[in-house]
Amino acid sequence: MNHPESRINELATRIVQAEKNGMIKDAGLEGATGKKVIAILQHAIQLLENDECYVEIGVYRGLSLISTSVVAPHITALGIDNFAQFDKNNSNKTFVENLIRQHQLHNTQLINMDFEDGLNSLEKFLNGKKIGLYFIDGPHDYRSQLICLLFAKKFLSEKAIIVIDNCNYNHVRQANQDFLKANSEFKLLFEGYTKAHPANLKGKALQEAWDSWLDGVNVLVKDPKNELPAMYPPTIRDRSLFFADHRIHPMRNSIFAWRAAKLAAVLKPFQPIMFVAYLLRLIIEVRKRKKSDIEPYPYINSLAKDLPYFNLNKPQIHS
Ligand SMILES: C[S@@+](CC[C@H](N)C(=O)[O-])C[C@H]1O[C@@H](n2cnc3c(N)ncnc32)[C@H](O)[C@@H]1O
Question: Which of 60, 96, 113, 214 to mutate to test the pocket of ligand 1 (most atoms within 8 A of CB)?
Answer without folding.
Answer: 60
